[in-house]
Automatic annotation (TrEMBL):
Protein name from the UniProt record: ATP-grasp domain-containing protein
Key words of the record: ATP-binding, Nucleotide-binding
Organism domain of life: Bacteria
SUPFAM superfamilies: Glutathione synthetase ATP-binding domain-like
Pfam families (alphabetical): ATPgrasp_YheCD
Domain ATP-grasp: 371-446
Record keyword ATP-binding present: yes
Any coiled-coil regions, as ranges: none
Length: 457
């Protein structure tokens, strides 16, 4: 199946005719053909072929063709030569997200990121954003948001896309029956859909337990722990993290500490401030947790605390932003080192943490060995991503790992996020990585839609 790049033009003739330049006819192996089927997304129509003399690779679509399959714009695009004289324009890429938004900001706080994706993707594909409400399943069409050259959104009706990049923002909405149905419909229509959903912490730890390499890098973690389990882990590890299975952004996390002869301590965040409480007995600590989260504590996990490397007495961990590339391989695209705010239970920036480059952080801790430690951490992150993908049932194209490095240079995986935030790319030294992240998303869309790029283009 051949792939070529061409210039698409629109003409006003009402017929279903396509005019193809000689060199494009040759590239598509259509010489002598009088009819083709032209496809965009999940829609295809028959069209008459008329060769034209024009230098370069050009495709002119009569309005009868353009309107029938809803080709959204003229300009440069890929053509894929399929079997039985079928030619596909594209790829047609859909970015799924949601509001609540305003006309100028239809995807609320994600609008800026989506605009970046659409702006950068417009040179290699037809790319649009949409919400679940924008799909007409009866007509198999989507009323999508395209980006104009002056950076404004405009709505255009297009066929169902070749691939969907899922950036639905709400964990709660993703578990609704309507969204489950939406995902299954895309899969039934053989439309690749990544990333499937937010990860649940308990599921991720369970999946990685069965992989001998990955399990070495995951701290001891127990789901829905009984009080006896929490007490046992505190006595063995001296401190643990107690966190919600479906949490994000550091919300609801406790650092629990046991110091013999001094008692038990709980550190957490409340009302925008760090709180530290001391308890003389384990039972009084449990009463606090049960009063705040219910007696069963079934939606929480307890995780072994790790003595992380520190700068100025504050622990450091690392966000590894992973992507599948255009060859379907996992790569590390960006790394942010997060230094905890003083007295904070997490390294989240909103809780007083600060962001450094990995070279800055590791250089201060390991000196000349910093680069060696960083390379080992990158290799570990790639192996963890590969392991998680094997164990996970659905398509993954992006993962955010929160990794820690302890005083012995051992590497630990604390969290895996299917829809990682992009706050690390705000660091002035990581802006190029932010752009590369978007390029990898687009390249993976080309891969999944079978519009693989060739080196000679």
């Amino acid at each position: 199946m051949g792939l070529t790049f061409c210039n698409v033009h629109f003409t006003k003739q009402p017929q279903r005719v396509v005019y193809i330049s000689g060199s494009l006819m040759k590239s598509l192996k259509l010489s002598g053909k009088r009819n083709i089927r032209l496809r965009l997304g999940k829609e295809a129509i028959p069209a008459v072929v008329k060769p034209i003399k024009r230098a370069g690779k050009h495709l002119f679509l009569a309005s009868g063709v353009q309107n029938a399959i809803k080709v959204p714009k003229s300009g440069s695009i890929y053509l894929r030569n399929l079997q039985n004289d079928e030619v596909q324009l594209g790829p047609l890429v859909g970015v799924l997200s949601d509001g609540p938004g305003s006309p100028g900001q239809p995807f609320a706080s994600r609008t800026g990121f989506i605009k970046q994706l659409l702006r950068q993707g417009s040179s290699m594909c037809y790319i649009f954003a949409f919400t679940p409400r924008d799909i007409n399943w009866q007509q198999e069409r989507v009323n999508g948001y395209f980006l104009t050259e002056n950076g404004k959104f405009e709505r255009k009706m297009v066929p169902l896309p070749d691939v969907v990049y899922n950036r639905l923002p709400s964990r709660r909405a993703e578990t609704s029956q309507a969204i489950n149905q939406l995902r299954e419909r895309f899969i039934r229509k053989k439309i690749p859909f990544f990333n499937w959903s937010f990860f649940n912490k308990s599921d991720i730890y369970r999946l990685l337990e069965s992989d001998s390499f990955a399990s070495q890098h995951v701290p001891e973690t127990r789901s829905s722990p009984e009080p006896g389990i929490i007490k046992d882990m505190l006595e063995r590890h001296h401190f643990v993290y107690y966190k919600p299975s479906a949490g994000s952004l550091g919300h609801g996390i406790y650092r629990l500490t046991y110091l013999p002869k001094r008692g038990y301590f709980a550190r957490y965040r409340k009302g925008g401030k760090n709180v530290l409480l001391r308890f003389s007995t384990f039972d009084s600590l449990m009463r606090l947790l049960q009063s705040r989260h219910g007696r069963t504590l079934h939606s929480y996990v307890v995780q072994q605390g790790i003595r992380l490397i520190e700068i100025d007495g504050c622990p450091i961990d690392f966000r590894f932003h992973m992507h599948k590339n255009g060859s379907n391989q996992w790569v590390v695209v960006g790394i942010g080192a997060k230094k905890a705010g003083r007295g904070s239970v997490t390294t989240h920036l909103k809780n007083g943490g600060s962001l450094l480059t990995p070279q800055q952080a590791l250089g201060r801790v390991f000196g000349a060995k910093a680069d060696e430690v960083l390379q080992r951490a990158k290799q570990t992150a790639i192996r963890l991503a590969e392991s998680l993908e094997i164990q996970h049932r659905h398509l993954l194209g992006e993962i955010g790992f929160d990794l820690g490095i302890d005083q012995d240079e051992d590497i630990w995986m604390f969290e895996a996020n299917a829809k990682p935030g992009r706050s690390i790319f705000r660091h002035p030294s990581l802006r190029a990585e932010g752009k590369a992240s978007i390029e990898h998303i687009l390249e993976h869309c080309l891969y999944l839609s079978k519009f693989r790029r060739r080196d000679d283009m």
